[in-house]
Amino acid sequence: MKASPNPAAAAGATTGNGASSLLPGIALCLGVTAIAMAVQVWEERATGHPYIEALVIAILFGIAIRTAWVPGERFRAGIAFSAKQVLEIAVTLLGASISLGAIVASGPALLTGIVGTVILAIAASYAICRGLGLPARMAILVACGNAICGNSAIAAVAPVIGADSKDVAGSIAFTAVLGVLMVLGLPLFIPLAGLSDHQYGVLAGLTVYAVPQVLAATVPVGLLSTQVGTLVKLVRVLMLGPVVVAFSLIAHRLPAEAGARKTERRKLGFARLVPWFILGFLGLATLRSLGLIPEAASGPVKQLAGFLTIMSMTALGLGVDVRVLARMGGRVTLAVTGSLAVLLAISLILIRALGIA
């Protein structure tokens, strides 16, 4: 009879294997990130201005690689780590370079407008999805993903409404693809709608799915857009808690659907509703606003955050299969894109209504 393995040794081996399993994917992301940054440097030397920022180049390279070659199992853990944990660290560090005074100066009208935009977007998106024949639970997932924060909102709402796993997977797949398209296409609204840097920051914060994607969409435009966009987005993300609670209260009223799971009645923890990196960002931003983080330290931290953001955008691109749109039904495609168009329209109307300069 074999002796049982030493628990401590087994734990150590597991930890070591877990860390080493991340290395191939992280190395791939670092390599693509280095190339993207080198291309930007070449642009600057050749033209005097980086017309395409390293953030965007990293996403495009990642998508191109993913389209031509599907990374094997050994790369996936590191890519997933770079796309999630690395970007969360980047967002947290960005707080050290942003003053909360920017959003306070915007006044209560903007804060009220953000809340109203989220509520209107959820209602309108749900109506569009149901009108196109999508099941109620998938309509809720699409609506919350568009209106709040993409994958995070879908993952948080799905269990409380008992959504089917296929609906969750389909919603997240679309979020991944459209999230990248938003990052690449949103700057076109600057000339089309005649937006200032401040206005564009508000638009990005109201419409782009994830906080790091807001950075990717605003950093090439300017510091003001980045600051405003990030802070508006954070307020929008904080709406996730009330929305999840609201749907948990009405979940039992949703119509019975094939494949729908029994809704979970577990207690909703604070950590589930407010991600740790949001708290970290707000904490560092508060310290920066109080003058407890000196300017000398703010610069290097911002540079590190920028590098990690580019790395996470590389991972985001490596995880996007553009062919997923072709495999999804026409009704789902129309519902998701229609919901996103409504969110853009509501956001532009809010910017004009509030007279944001």
From TrEMBL:
It is a multi-pass membrane protein. It comes from the Bacteria. Pfam families: Cons_hypoth698 (PF03601). The chain crosses the membrane at residues 21-42, 48-65, 86-104, 110-128, 140-162, 168-190, 202-222, 234-252, 273-293, 305-325, 332-354. InterPro entries: UPF0324_pro (IPR018383). Keywords: Cell membrane, Membrane, Transmembrane, Transmembrane helix. It is found in: Cell membrane. Belongs to the UPF0324 family. This is YeiH family protein. The lineage of its organism: Bacteria, Pseudomonadati, Pseudomonadota, Alphaproteobacteria, Hyphomicrobiales.
